[in-house]
Amino acid sequence: GRDDLVFAENLALYGWTGLPLPPYSNANPWFKENGIDLKGKHACDVAELSGAEFPGRKHTALADAKGVALGFIALISRGAPNPFLTH
Question: CB–CB of 69/16 below 8 Å?
């Protein structure tokens, strides 16, 4: 999804303006190409939909991020192309 927009909004909320945001990449198309349709789902759903166990309490930033990472790991370990490798 577009959590980068939420991140930018939170920075502005706290008055931290002018800070550069890291590059943004939407992982949803990659997951869909690899059999996981995330439409209407949340970050906390990625791990379980990918066949991994969710690591904590849902809808908390760190656990949700870990769940997404575990989703990538699960699919890559089953043969999906690794989107983090440059060719």
Answer: no
